[in-house]
Design a protein that fits this description.
The protein is built from 4 helices and 10 strands; from the N terminus they run E-E-E-H-E-H-E-H-E-H-E-E-E-E. By secondary structure, it is an alpha/beta fold. It folds into 2 domains: 118 residues, Spore Coat Polysaccharide Biosynthesis Protein SpsA, Chain A, CATH 3.90.550; 44 residues, no CATH class. The strands form 3 sheets. A 6-stranded mixed β-sheet has the order 5-4-1-6-10-7, with helices on both faces. The chain has a two-stranded antiparallel sheet with strand order 2-3. The longest helix is centred in the first third of the chain and has 11 residues. The chain is globular, with a radius of gyration of 16 Å. It starts with a strand and ends with a strand. The mean pLDDT is 80.
């Protein structure tokens, strides 16, 4: 598949700091391996070949681990010198990736998505994968009308089912 993937792995991971105090959040262990390992393995099975890791906080932990895996992937590291937030990290990375479209994935999110199909359906300026959940108040939710996103609502006290941002974009 020709589309490169950008994994956002540069956040401070403050909510998981008590579980992984010396590691970036995507390096938290799941089934004996860092979460990011599983995400890269999944992208590999979906036909992705070029992966850009947007790194920042404790980036050396990520770089030293992954240099010995995934020989069939071209892994590039894009280092944020200071935390840029999600939008800033995406803008920073897109300025360095020479591609018309880029698959962007949150580094702490796994969505069992058929990536080739998602890419094939990309016809808008931006595609955003959504997931329907019960009690979307934990996450904030996506407001939609006629299958179009019209807004985002931050976490609230209101318990309701709804669509949330699944952390995968083109």
């Amino acid at each position: 598949m020709n589309i490169p993937a950008l994994i956002l792995a540069g956040g401070l991971g403050t909510r998981l700091r008590h579980l992984v105090p010396d590691l970036p959040k995507p390096m938290a262990e799941v089934a004996g391996k860092p979460f990011l390992y599983h995400l890269l393995k999944y992208l590999q099975t979906q036909g992705i070949r070029d992966v850009y890791l947007s790194v920042g906080y404790k980036s050396e932990k990520i770089e030293s681990y992954f240099h010995r895996f995934f020989y069939s992937l071209n892994i590039h590291y894009l280092k944020e010198n200071e935390p840029l937030g999600t939008g800033g990290a995406i803008a920073f990375a897109l300025n360095q990736i020479n591609a018309e479209n880029v698959l962007v994935i949150n580094g702490d999110t796994f969505l069992n998505l058929n990536i080739p199909q998602f890419v094939q359906s990309h016809k808008n300026a931006l595609n955003l994968a959504l997931k329907r959940v019960e009690q979307s108040n934990r996450y904030g939710f996506v407001e939609e009308k006629n299958n179009r996103i019209v807004g985002f609502t931050e976490k609230s006290q209101e318990l309701k089912d709804g669509w949330i941002n699944a952390g995968v974009y083109i």
